[in-house]
Structures are given as structure tokens and as C-alpha cells.
Amino acid sequence: IVFNDYRTVDHGGTMKRALITGVTGQDGSYLTELLLSKGYEVHGIKRRSSLFNTERIDHVYNDPHEGGRFFLHYGDLTDSLNVTEIIQKVKPDEIYNLAAQSHVAVSFVQPEYTANVDAMGTLRILESVRLLGLQDKVKIYQASTSELFGKAVEFPQSENTPFYPRSPYGVAKLFAYWITINYREAYGMFACNGILFNHESSRRGETFVTRKITRGVTRILFGLDKKIYLGNLNAKRDFGHAQDYVKGMYLILQQPRPDDYVLATGITTEIREFIALAFDEVGLTVKFQGEGIKECGIVISYHEDVLLSRLQSVHCAPEHKENILQTARACLNKVVVGIDQRYFRPSEVDILIGDPTKAREKLGWEPQHTVKDIVSDMIISDLEKNYREYVLKTRGFTMSRSCGI
Ligand code: NAP
Ligand code: F7E
């Protein structure tokens, strides 16, 4: 990938140019795909890392020397001068500010850093655009969140529901939400908030609960792990698919006037239910028993036909099938989900459910995926990934275990 060598290519002034912060993240990668498919020239900001960190976007890269329309720039939202320089160089038509320390639990451990990136980072972008005199040219999308509703005061939550954030992440995003509106009102900027409820996919980070579950289920199946340890299973979230939600982001910036929109499905799912759905996908039925920290999930039945069809979809080789089926059978009556106190948060958001009426009526936006579709997508993808690891292990390769928490 070519960094920082961007020279404006003359496309005859017809091609729209987008700048995406957080391009290496879940949403950044889907949005890049979407905008490239619409003919945009796409620029992404990537943090320097000691490892390659571009797995989510490698597949959309084409060498710019050979006509590629995707460029990466080193940058960080904590560095005002760097943000300003990139905006000045790229002169985008649209900026999608997706960069964030986006993990709610981590925000309790790193509150100051979270505020610096999620709150001040947004201000840095808005102020750069203003100082560069680009306020009439650039449209800005701010990645706001249902975490603003936090300890929700009404159900479902809409654009008019008062906010009550419950974490440093939520509070930082509250500043970002209001500074976006303030720049719209003070300077007439086309700056919009998308208040997005949880959206997931096979590209979701491994420490968010849905991915932790689908990854854990598939690892148990291949005998790579024995149990998944989680925190509060009572929480309920309105889960959508990230691919649907990036379409909403794009639509928000295509409207005649800047405005703020909730994107949600209107359906809420308990974490416990998500776990059961994930095990169902591979033919294992899980029942929960016990309470609080002693609660656990036990496999009470096994449906080999379901597992066989899943293994088929990941092209499992015949010589591995019997071993995998045996491991799955051995799960019967075993505890596969446990609780670990460290995954509880100092203050929790118990339940979120969004009202996407405004997005449906004004943007024509409609989510296309159900929770079951999402679970299914994520399970298939994690089956493929962990099957690869299983095969390497059976061939005698030593696989390093991730120490991610
Ligand atoms: P994600 O996968 O965690 O991606 C976050 C991105 O921000 C990554 O590319 C990350 O880079 C980058 N980043 C972090 N700190 C940065 C910094 N200091 N400077 C520059 N880049 C930085 O998050 P996501 O799920 O795609 O979410 C995208 C945005 O939507 C975030 O702002 C999130 O808070 C918000 N949001 C997400 C959801 C959801 O359910 N997914 C819902 C509502 C709002 P690295 O790859 O280097 O870490
Ligand atoms: O937690 C509970 C946890 O970390 C969901 C971010 O994208 O969406 C995301 O924030 C729920 C919480 O996402 C574990 O306590 C139980 O109630 O997957 P999560 P989140 O906190 O909802 C919003 C909209 C954003 O804006 C954020 O950027 O699941 N939970 N056990 C757990 N959560 C985690 N991570 N790990 C557990 O072991």
C-alpha cells in the first residue's frame, strides 16, 4: 500500500473524493468498498503500527500507479497539524470521521485518551476544515452512537430522545455530537451525525461481544478452546449489519440539507440469546443455568446434520470430519460459557432499541439483515478462519495463541 505519496490525479473534476478516518476499522473497510463501487476516489487515514494492520482493506487495494483510486495516509486524530495537512492535501468533498477508541470497556481504563481521540479528534477535523476555508466545499459525517442514550429515558430511542451516556466513551462521543451540530449552526457547515446502534459483521473486532462469541463457538468446535468467558449476559442491544449501516452513512451526506439520523433495526436481543443463536448455527443447543457470577451455559443437545452442513460450507476435508464431529459430540453436557467478573463494566448500558423511522422516511434506508443473518455470516467466517488454524495444528505447526483480552 502506498502511503502519503498522493498527488492529485486529474479526473476531469467529475470524480468525488472522500476522506475516511478509521479506514482500517470494521466500518471504514465496508465504507471504502461502497464508495469505490460508486466511483469515488477514496483516501484513508491509517495510524502507524508496528505490524501490518490493513487486513480489512487489503482486498480493495489497487496500485495507484496503475489507476487505483484508493490512497492511504499516515495520520492520527490526536495530531492536529497532521490532520490539517491531510485535509489540505486531499481537499475532499466528503469526510467520514470513523476513527475512535471505540471500545466502551477500554474507555474506563483509558478515559483521557478516549476523550482526546473521540471528542477532541472530531473538533480537530471540524476546525481544520474551517481554518482551511473549506467549510462550503466539504461535507462531514460524524460517527455518533447509541451509547449517547446510555441509561435510556425512553423506548425506543429516536433523534429526539434525551441523552444519558454511561461511560467515558459515551461522554466523549457526546462532545463530538454537539460540536458537530455547533459547527453546522455557527459556520453553516454540512456536518451531520449518524447515531448508529450496534452493528456487527465478520470484520468486527475480536473483543466486542458478538465476535468474541462467534469466534469462541467455532474454536470450541475445533477443540482450540474449551469455554467462552463473558460478563453481563443480561444486556440487550439493537444489532444490525455493518454493511447496511455504511450505506446509511453515505445517504446521510447525499441529502439536500445536513441533519442527524438514527440508524437501527428496531429489534433488541439479549446477549444470552445471541450466544444461543451462535451455538445453534453449529448444531449445539445451549441452556443457561445458575445466577450472577455462577451462571453458565451447558450444551444440552447436538444436531449432527446442522454441523455437517456448516462444515460443508467451509469445504472441510473428509479426513478431518470425523475428528471434528467427535469433538462436537464430546461437548454434550459440558459447560461452554462461563462468567468472568472482569468483563463487567463500572456502569452499564442495560438496554438499547432504536427507532429508525426518520432514516426510513427521509433517506429511504432500510436494514437488510436480521440478527440470525448476522450470526450466520459471522459463524461461517469464523469457521473458515479457525478451520485453517485447526488444519495447521493437525499438521504439527505450533500456533501462537492471541493474548488479546
Ligand atoms: P473500529 O473497528 O474499532 O475502528 C476504529 C478505527 O479508528 C480503526 O481504524 C482505528 O485504527 C482507528 N483509530 C483509533 N484511534 C485512532 C487515532 N488516534 N487516530 C486515527 N485513527 C484511530 O470501529 P468501528 O466499529 O468500525 O466503528 C467506526 C466508528 O463508529 C467509531 O467511531 C465508533 O466509535 C462508531 N460507532 C460504532 C458502532 C458499532 O456498533 N460498530 C456503533 C456506533 C458508533 P486501528 O486499526 O489502528 O486501531
Ligand atoms: O458490548 C456485554 C457488554 O463491547 C455489548 C461499540 O461498537 O456499540 C459497541 O459498544 C454488551 C455490553 O459493545 C462481554 O457489557 C457481556 O452490555 O460488544 P460490546 P458496546 O459496549 O455495546 C456501540 C453502539 C458503540 O458505539 C461502540 O463503539 O455486551 N458483554 N460480556 C460483553 N462485552 C464485551 N465486549 N465482552 C464481554 O465479554
What's this entry about, in short?
The protein contains 12 helices and 15 strands. With 405 residues, it is of the alpha/beta class.
Task: Give a verbal description of the structure.
Helix content is 39%, strand content 16%. By secondary structure, it is α/β, with parallel strands linked by helices. The strands form 4 sheets. The chain has a 7-stranded parallel beta sheet with strand order 3-2-1-4-5-6-11, sandwiched between helices. The protein has a 4-stranded mixed beta sheet with strand order 8-15-14-13. The chain has a two-stranded parallel sheet with strand order 7-10. The relative contact order is 0.12. The model has no long low-confidence stretch (mean pLDDT 96). Residues 21-22, 24-28, 45, 47, 49, 53, 76-78, 98-102, 117, 143, 145, 196, 198-199, 205 line the site of NADP nicotinamide-adenine-dinucleotide phosphate (NAP).
Helix and strand element order = EHEEHEHHEHEEHEEEHEEHEEHHEHH
Tally the beta strands. 15
Overall structural class, as computed from helix and strand content, comes to: alpha/beta
Gap from first CA to last CA: 29 Å
* Percentage of residues in DSSP E strands: 15-25%
Radius of gyration, CA atoms, in whole angstroms? 22 Å
Average pLDDT = 96
Q: Please report the number of helical segments.
A: 12
**Unreliable residue runs:** none
Task: Identify every distinct bound molecule in the structure, by name, code or SMILES.
Answer: NADP nicotinamide-adenine-dinucleotide phosphate, ligand F7E
Please state how the strands of the largest beta sheet are arranged side by side. Answer: 3-2-1-4-5-6-11
Rough shape?
A: globular
Profile the largest sheet: 7 strands, parallel
